[in-house]
């Protein structure tokens, strides 16, 4: 596989300007206190200076400002606010790296990729369940994925395709910039930059090597029946023809993720009987209706088409709990804008 060793010259002033124009103009201010409009004053001068610092090795990312937002279960989760200049550099890196990895990424990976959306992932899952031999669904959940990404492994993964040490150094600096909470600065020894525009791409790279390539090899070598996967960032659903395949896969997946400092959430990772025969088989065992599972904000339910009574998958939104969470989030944003 081709390893690119001379990428840095592409990170020029024009690419930095393009990255600046692509940023969210209403985003919160980072530790530097600058907004998008503030940075845009004397933009050419700022970009020339930034370009000089990047290429001379004098650029240093600032720590991410940490704030806390409410979760649907009543707890809080941390959100990182990156400075405008660091967002700009990260966006430029995304432009630089995306064409390289789009060639490599698997077709079943949908999250945060050009020309792909949540709807595409949902459609792919619908086709797998309704048109392929899927009788069991493994609904996976990786515990605190974005907080547990191992920096050493991530840089090794990137280095498979990127041989330019200056680009690797920029990525490493971004990963280790630290976090500011109040007046206290904390080091970042693991995880991807919270709220950083580079984080989704780095997450896809990490999961491409730690999960996607392995899943593709496992199902070809070990599966007795058909196996399908749809992944959106760290959220993945797998469909299996046979239950024993699903159980063996889950055990092997637990071991695989442990090698890369990741683990499945024991309560949120579930194996569910699902598909065209689920209702009949469960009725014979007197186990009630097939269970449901959630993916990308939708609850998936075994059902039948009105026109001909054939099997289909119905999708409904997560309902009241989601609306309550959105309401709390809007209240928080109004208070903390």
The rounded Rg comes to 22 Å
Shape: globular
Strand content: 15-25%
- In DSSP terms, counting alpha (H) and pi (I) runs of 4 or more, how many helices? 12
The averaged pLDDT comes out at 93
Helix content: 40-55%
Low-pLDDT residue spans: none
The sequence of SSEs as H and E is HHHEEHHEHHHEEHEEHEHEEEH
Strand order of the largest sheet: 2-1-4-5
Structure description:
- This protein has 337 residues and is an alpha+beta fold.
- The chain has helices spanning 13-22, 36-40, 43-56, 84-102, 118-131, 145-148, 151-159, 165-175, 199-221, 243-258, 278-284, 320-336, and strands at residues 64-70, 76-81, 136-139, 179-181, 184-186, 227-232, 235-240, 270-273, 293-295, 298-304, 311-317.
- A four-stranded mixed β-sheet has the order 2-1-4-5. It has a four-stranded antiparallel β-sheet with strand order 6-7-3-8, sandwiched between helices.
- A hairpin with a 5-residue loop joins β1 (64-70) and β2.
- It starts with 12 loop residues before the first helix and ends with a helix.
Question: Notable features of this structure?
Answer:
337 residues; alpha+beta; four-stranded mixed β-sheet; 12 helices; globular
Structure summarized in a few sentences:
By secondary structure, the chain is α+β, with helices and mostly antiparallel strands.
Task: Indicate the topology.
Elements: H1 13-22, H2 36-40, H3 43-56, E1 64-70, E2 76-81, H4 84-102, H5 118-131, E3 136-139, H6 145-148, H7 151-159, H8 165-175, E4 179-181, E5 184-186, H9 199-221, E6 227-232, E7 235-240, H10 243-258, E8 270-273, H11 278-284, E9 293-295, E10 298-304, E11 311-317, H12 320-336
Parallel strand pairs: 1-4
Antiparallel strand pairs: 1-2, 3-7, 3-8, 4-5, 6-7, 9-10, 10-11
